[in-house]
């Protein structure tokens, strides 16, 4: 029997390829090589699956990145910001960029997706703001600069084709260096 994780991985693959229109039970069953019964063993229904898929997206591209930066909190916010920046850039393969793009498109047409994406964005912005506050920036500067960084990554994902990690690093790293240089910690 296929695991819950197998079903979520298949959904991310479909989301990264065909987008939301391809996210159907038949396509998932084919991708996983299992029956509808296996799907329903793990998920009550398709709306429940879609929420679980969005939560997996949040885990992979928000929670894990923040957890990694938090794991080095003893090294200070400058190190945390650099690690977070490196992790964000390194995590943006073309597949992941397209998944992020498709989640954002999904959120424009589905209330559950919009709610979860708003939570993800708020968490990302709050964490960046906290790191910048830790570097000595005031609240207004921290919120503004956190938004700049987030918008840069979102914009890189929305380009067609999405920016490569090396292209994003070329733009992102000087901003991080400027923020670290201007810090009053």
Structural class assignment:
mainly alpha
User: In DSSP terms, counting alpha (H) and pi (I) runs of 4 or more, how many helices?
Assistant: 9
Question: In whole angstroms, how far apart are the ends?
Answer: 53 Å
Envelope shape: elongated
Structural Rg: 18 Å
Helix content: over 70%
Number of strands: 0
Enumerate the spans where pLDDT stays under 50 for 5 or more consecutive residues: none
Taking the sheet with the most strands, its summary is:
none
> What string gives the helices and strands in order?
HHHHHHHHH
Sheet-strand content, in percent, reads: under 5%
Query: Which whole number gives the mean pLDDT?
Result: 95
Structure write-up:
The chain is 77% helix and 0% strand. It is an all-alpha fold and 185 residues long. The radius of gyration is 18 Å and the shape is elongated. The mean pLDDT is 95.
Compact overview of the structure:
The protein is mainly α and 185 residues long. The chain is built from nine helices and no strands.
Topology:
Blueprint: H1 4-17, H2 25-32, H3 36-42, H4 46-70, H5 77-90, H6 94-107, H7 111-134, H8 139-158, H9 165-181
